[in-house]
Amino acid sequence: MARKFDAQRAFELYQNHESTRLRENLQNVDSEHDNLKKELESAKFTVLPGRDKYGAAIALFTARLHFPTQTTHQQVLKALVYQLDAALESLDTQRHGIVFIYDMTDSKYSNFDYDLSKKILNMLKGGYPARLKKVLIVTAPLWFKAPFKILRLFVREKLQERVYIINLSQISLHIPQESIPKQLGGACPSKHTAWLQVCKGVAQGQSPNMDTYFLACKRRQSQTSADMTSVTSQRSLSSDISDNLLISDLESEDSKETVNEKYSCEDLEKEEEIGIEKEVIVEKETDDLSANGTVKRRRDSDGKSNNVKHLTDGKIHENSVQNGENDQETPRKKRPSSAVSNDIYEESIHMPDDGGIELDQLVQCVKAAKRRGLYEEYAQIKMEQPVGTFTVSRAKYNLPKNRYADVLSLDQTRVKLPTVEGDPSSDYINANFVDGYMQKNAYISTQGPLPKTFGDFWRMIWYCQVMVVVMTTRTVERGRQKCGQYWPPEEDGEEQFDEFIVINTGMEQSQDYTITGLFLHNTKTGESRQVYHLQFTSWPDYGVPRTASAFLDFLFRVRSCQVEATKSLGSSWQGHSNGPPMVVHCSAGIGRTGTFITIDISLQRLEHIGNIDVSETVRRIRSQRAFSIQMPDQFVFCHFAIIEHGMREGKIGEIDWEGFDDSDSDED
Hints:
Blueprint: H1 7-23, H2 34-41, E1 45-51, E2 57-62, H3 73-87, H4 91-96, E3 98-103, H5 114-127, E4 132-138, H6 145-158, E5 163-166, H7 192-203, H8 225-248, H9 253-256, H10 259-263, E6 295-296, H11 308-311, H12 359-383, H13 391-394, E7 431-436, E8 439-446, H14 454-463, E9 468-471, E10 476-477, E11 480-481, E12 494-497, E13 500-509, E14 513-522, E15 528-536, H15 549-569, E16 582-585, H16 591-609, H17 614-622, H18 632-648
Parallel strand pairs: 2-3, 3-4, 4-5, 8-16, 9-15, 9-16
Antiparallel strand pairs: 1-2, 6-12, 7-8, 10-11, 12-13, 13-14, 14-15
Helix pairs in contact: 2-3, 3-7, 5-6, 12-18, 16-17, 16-18
Domain CRAL-TRIO: 33-192
Enzyme class: hydrolase
GO molecular function: protein tyrosine phosphatase activity
């Protein structure tokens, strides 16, 4: 029934709902189909036997029971439609509407699906022929703040004041105690199996008596006009409570208990900057960007970032058709088309071969060569000219996008961005694909972003499907700007770079590195992702670290983040089993960046076939990202990191390095 018995409104609701069913392919709902049957029996969504004191039905979605990688949007929506169709057989539900509870108790970020949440709200707000009285989000964890900042733009426009974030003690403000489910501290028992039998009867056209399931919670006929005034006052009070609870509940101690669960693998890395003399342009980084408006940083009078709604003109665009919204069995996390090859059989330039040496042989070679010998070996590599061209990097319109005049991107392996408004120069960023061990395009080596390239950087992250960013430099070292602040540095901070909104959802800081969770939202498609940003902060201003211990810890944290990120994609990722490429950058994108990649590839090879070839690995990396490994001490550090890893793993014993430093490093 439409509000106020408006026939035109009723017809519009019907049309909207039919359009939703058609768009999501929900016309045929077979509860005996294996996938849907499993979805229904999971009990993640159910309709409770109780009602609120005004007669509304109560639907419950339990977030911790939802595992996005194990199902699809279509199956979840079919389960909802199947049950809501049955609920609407009740005249009381038609008259008094539905209260939707989203129980986030004990849920983690891996249980949350932004796109699915938006689809459900879209269906309930007006597309489903029953009045949605309110949405109650119960015990929302701290990490939920970021996606909710985006969702609230959508729900505030359409649902206005009907979305409430509450804790357990506040449920009774909205639902009678006898109708609150037991899992939320109430007295209403779960009868999901019985409810599914009711749904089955409705689906088979049996017209079951709804009173046999729903408890008698109907509105009393003798309710006075004074009671109705009380109802209005209560609604107003609830609206006021909602605004206050949005922050207070999310910052409660109960919420904080779950925040570390989300960021346990979100390591931040920092990469060393390379001593390169010429800088093309000296950029002054301010909150306001230059005329091209690439970055939109907006502050209120207190110096804090304004709410995201100001950055997106108050609305989020729906997913575009090209991103697969009409797919019948599209997994819940749709990925945009990418410049990255998903051919897992495409061969990397780093494959198993017989050219390497075993770990104990490496130790003997390093001891024999000493520092001077390794310097000479590196000097020979450095004298070899790059194989390839730099035509695009040297184009006049691209020169300002290069942080350093003599650090350019090889044409053959450069990352090509989708062009913007037909501008051919907009496809350029100073970045190259670099193969990993037995993995094509495992890395993207790039420079530290300039303020004018922040938008390009996030566009690369988005279209290359990157989920892990490795940073091995500080933004400022020795008083020099090494990298722009391309992400919000403070927890809960938010910035907009072109069409991308970036929100800092939490930080974990250790002695040697920082881990930041970044929520990345594409305002053009309406899609969002979580990106792990790992920054190594212990690289000294001069030379290289004295030991590789902290760097190795950092490297393996990066790997664990990549594993977790890839696992979260589920079947939506069809590429290499190691996942999408990870971005690695320092300042120029060749020194510490090349060091990180060399060590990572070498250790993977050592684990696989038991030998390594550092010099050849460096040569091959340089064939894709020219001049990688900028200084001789970085080349030496790669050897020591591999050896130190072997010692930590018990593969070799303690080593006496007396006499190794027969010459001082000439690195400044």
